[in-house]
Amino acid sequence: MASKNTICLWYNRDALEAAQFYAKTFPDSQVGAVHRAPGDFPSGRQGDVLTVEFTVMGIPCLGLNGGPAFQHSEAFSFQVATEDQAETDRLWDAIVGNGGQASECGWCKDRWGLSWQITPRVLMAAITDPDRAAAKRAFDAMMQMGKIDIATIEAARRG
């Protein structure tokens, strides 16, 4: 990879499948080089996919098929700024509908356990509104949601 800083994401054995899903789901995403193990390793054999170079929305990543020793947690997530409800719905539904799991406040997990925040720009503007009462109304509305509903956020912000 050309980047000096790359996010390494640990997968059990599905790094290539995950990278292919991200590439078809998110703009400015693609799968790069696939590297196979030159010898046996604790969770695999020579010739198995060991690492996959890919980008997610322009961010360079390396998927490592390291086995079941480590799991993803909410301590790391991709936060995706969406422009409208259609984009919010498309991305959320793609992640959750591909074996993922819905959570709260715009968060969801993909089928590999990686966390995503599908965050409309309208939401970020609303909860950082200089009018603190409007910000609180929008924040309180968000706290009741799974997938973010932009119309509800806008209505709460207006009061």
Mean pLDDT value: 96
Poorly predicted sequence stretches spanning 5 or more consecutive residues: none
Provide the CATH top-level class of the largest domain: Alpha Beta
Give the second-level CATH assignment, the architecture of the largest domain.
Roll
Instruction: Give the strand tally.
Output: 8
By secondary-structure content and strand pairing, the structural class works out as: alpha/beta
Kindly describe this structure:
Helix 3 packs parallel to helix 5 (150-158) and helix 4 runs antiparallel to helix 5. The chain has 2 domains: 1-67, Roll (2,3-Dihydroxybiphenyl 1,2-Dioxygenase, domain 1), CATH 3.10.180.10; 72-159, 2,3-Dihydroxybiphenyl 1,2-Dioxygenase, domain 1. The termini are far apart. The protein has helices at 15-25, 85-97, 121-127, 132-142, 150-158, and strands at 7-11, 30-36, 49-56, 59-65, 77-82, 101-102, 107-109, 115-120. With 159 residues, the chain is α/β, with parallel strands linked by helices. The protein is elongated and about 60 Å long. A hairpin with a 4-residue loop joins strand 6 and strand 7.
Task: Please render the helix and strand layout as text.
Layout: E1 7-11, H1 15-25, E2 30-36, E3 49-56, E4 59-65, E5 77-82, H2 85-97, E6 101-102, E7 107-109, E8 115-120, H3 121-127, H4 132-142, H5 150-158
Parallel strand pairs: 1-4, 5-8
Antiparallel strand pairs: 2-3, 3-4, 6-7, 7-8
Helix pairs in contact: 3-5, 4-5
